[in-house]
């Protein structure tokens, strides 16, 4: 009887082991390399990089998967020296072909390090603010109380994974996400140019950067790992370095409006501008193309855009577009414990510090900022003609982003 039980147990264990080996093989063939590499780990400071197998308590299946994947892939624990040397090379300036990048340009002036910014203390403060408000039961907003398991897969599409360096980046549109995606492509070697991985982020064409097939994101795990997908997500969230960049919510809205409605964008004109012009400006028989509309002086106003955001019918039709969707809905900061919180307002310093912490600063530099970047000082002018009641409603709509990421309440815009 005992021998029969042992035999059945052996068969089960061998079957599980074979399934996991198939999963690992599938991942190695289907993507680049699957590295369980270094990461930050609580409660250490942002300056300390983990070096060992410092796993926290995990469910049995997660722990088994973690150990198996770690032991199976130890041989791939570093980037080849030749690749590292090649990544440093590359052209100094890009050939800019995208309309938005042509209009805004790049700021190629040198930026001196600001020694007054104590980056480590800054990170501790930003993370403390986020954790305190996530734990504060009196501060509520939609989806706050969800667990990670409650987040549907389609809402995890902004979490980009680099298995080569053990990095997870949650991208937020209008917060330098194009260039951070370029950095992730270089690090993960997920895109080739004539058979060779890109080495300079600015060499990567914008259309490839925003192609969803270019990046490995959490929402793709289900197709790849099936019922093991959530287990593997949790392992990577425990082990990998997780970061995001945020921005003053109202300034981000201005930036989104400028790039999507002040420049000719066919897709956004048809999907959003035409309905806005009909609903809020009483236009009929609108041109079918954005060039014709712009030629006739038919453009969405900032007031139209704000009305669209506040209109309860908007989200009944579809969730906010990612360019103006709230950060808490894109990156789930109360469900995911981010190791690094960058801000666009301190982009150059934060980016340089993060690349150092990731130990990839010898491989690449973060691309330069835009010359004509939307500034916080523009808020008063942009909102001057927006009724006070609308501004107050808009603040409530984006309040969670203001509070979680430490942006002061714009009192000057919310009072007479």
From TrEMBL:
UniProt topology in membrane: Single-pass type II membrane protein
EC number(s) reported in the record: 2.8.2.-
Pfam families documented for this protein: Sulfotransfer_2
Entry keywords, A to Z: Carbohydrate metabolism, Glycoprotein, Golgi apparatus, Membrane, Signal-anchor, Transferase, Transmembrane, Transmembrane helix
Gene Ontology cellular component list: Golgi membrane
GO molecular function, one term: sulfotransferase activity
InterPro entries xrefs: Carb_sulfotrans_8-10 (IPR018011), Sulfotransferase (IPR005331)
Residue stretches spanning the membrane: 7-26
Biological process per Gene Ontology, one example term: proteoglycan biosynthetic process
Top-rank taxon: Eukaryota
Subcellular location: Golgi apparatus membrane
The keyword Glycoprotein is assigned to this record: yes
Keyword Aminoacyl-tRNA synthetase: no
Top EC class for this record: transferase
Recorded family membership: Belongs to the sulfotransferase 2 family.
Protein name: Carbohydrate sulfotransferase
Origin species: Polioptila caerulea
Gene coding for it: Chst12
């Amino acid at each position: 009887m005992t021998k029969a039980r042992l035999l059945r147990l052996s068969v089960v264990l061998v079957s599980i082991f074979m399934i996991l080996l198939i999963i690992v093989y599938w991942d190695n063939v289907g993507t680049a390399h699957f590295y369980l590499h270094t990461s930050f780990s609580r409660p250490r400071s942002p300056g300390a990089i983990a070096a060992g197998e410092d796993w926290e308590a995990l469910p049995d299946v997660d722990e088994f998967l973690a150990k198996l994947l770690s032991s199976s892939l130890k041989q791939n624990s570093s980037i080849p020296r030749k690749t590292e040397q090649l990544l440093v090379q590359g052209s100094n300036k890009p050939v800019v072909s995208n309309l938005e990048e042509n209009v805004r340009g790049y700021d190629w002036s040198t930026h001196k390090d600001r020694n007054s910014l104590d980056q480590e203390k800054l990170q501790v403060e930003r993370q403390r603010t986020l954790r305190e408000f996530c734990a504060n039961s009196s501060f509520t907003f939609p989806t706050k109380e969800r667990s990670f398991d409650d987040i549907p897969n389609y809402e995890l599409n902004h979490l980009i994974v680099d298995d080569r360096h053990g990095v997870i980046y949650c991208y937020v549109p209008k917060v330098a996400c194009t260039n951070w995606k370029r950095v992730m492509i270089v690090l993960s070697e997920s895109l080739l140019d004539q058979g060779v991985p890109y080495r300079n982020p600015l060499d990567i064409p914008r259309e490839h950067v925003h192609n969803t097939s270019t990046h490995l994101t959490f929402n793709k795990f289900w197709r790849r790992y099936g019922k093991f997908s959530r287990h593997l997500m949790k392992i990577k969230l425990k082990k990998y370095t997780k970061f995001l960049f945020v921005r003053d919510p109202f300034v981000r809205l201005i930036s989104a409006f400028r790039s999507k409605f002040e420049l000719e964008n066919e897709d956004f004109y048809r999907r959003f501008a035409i309905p806005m012009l009909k609903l809020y400006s009483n236009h009929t028989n609108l041109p079918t193309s954005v060039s014709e509309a712009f030629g006739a002086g038919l453009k969405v106003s900032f007031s139209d855009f704000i009305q669209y955001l506040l209109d309860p019918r908007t989200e009944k039709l579809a969730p906010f577009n990612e360019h103006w969707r709230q950060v808490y809905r894109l990156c789930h900061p109360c469900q995911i414990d981010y190791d690094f919180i960058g801000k666009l307002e301190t982009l150059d310093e934060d980016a340089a510090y993060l690349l150092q912490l990731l130990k990839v600063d010898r491989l690449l530099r973060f691309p330069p900022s835009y010359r004509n970047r939307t500034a916080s000082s523009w808020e008063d002018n942009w909102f001057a003609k927006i009724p006070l009641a609308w501004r107050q409603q808009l603040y409530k709509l984006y309040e969670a982003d203001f509070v979680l990421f430490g942006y002061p309440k714009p009192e000057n815009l919310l009072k007479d």
